[in-house]
Hints:
With 146 residues, this protein is mainly α. It has a single domain, classed as Globin-like. It is 60% helix and 5% strand. The protein has 8 helices and 2 strands. A two-stranded antiparallel sheet has the order 1-2. Strand 1 and strand 2 form a beta hairpin. Helix 2 crosses helix 4, helix 2 crosses helix 7 and helix 7 runs antiparallel to helix 8. The relative contact order is 0.14. Bound molecules: protoporphyrin IX containing FE. Protoporphyrin IX containing FE binds next to helix 3, helix 4, helix 6, helix 7 and helix 8. The site of protoporphyrin IX containing FE (HEM) has 21 residues, from helix 3, helix 4, helix 6, helix 7 and helix 8. This is Globin.
Amino acid sequence: MSDETDQIEGEQVARKTPYERLGGREVIVAITNRFYDLMEADPAYAALRAMHAADLGPMRESLAGFLTGWSGGPRDWFASGKCMMSMHRGLPIARETADQWAAAMARAIADVAPADKVMADAMAGVLEEIAGSMVPVEAPVAASAD
Ligand code: HEM
């Protein structure tokens, strides 16, 4: 069996990317829009909303582009030279704010409800991990010499 195929019920089938399994561009855009709608409307995400610019339009475009390439779809966002982790490195992201990001994203994915629930849950889980990894780690306090 090659790396690009799976064995399902004795059949050799082409392995799909997460992007394809989720439903492609349409579903990615729907998840992104739902995510920013929730961020704008629900006070539970107020701290997260406050960190973003007044106009979320450019973010809707950008996050959808990132998630498209990241999940195995067209890589235009990455081809433009952007790096999502470097863009966040300087931000003072508190644990609570990272939790708000992950909660809003999990809710957006659940609301859009991609038919492939295994992949949808995997996406929510991995994005939660990434959001958590953006909380800056406090510099360790140097041990006192005395
Ligand atoms: C951990 C909590 C997070 C916080 C507080 C946060 C905050 C922000 C902020 C403040 C911006 C700039 C917004 C603006 O200029 O209006 C931004 C942009 C962005 N964020 Fe996050 N973010 C978080 C997590 C994530 C995660 C986990 C991802 C993707 C997996 C992500 C993807 C993006 C993208 C693609 C942009 C747009 C970058 C651009 O084109 O300029 N963010 N984020």
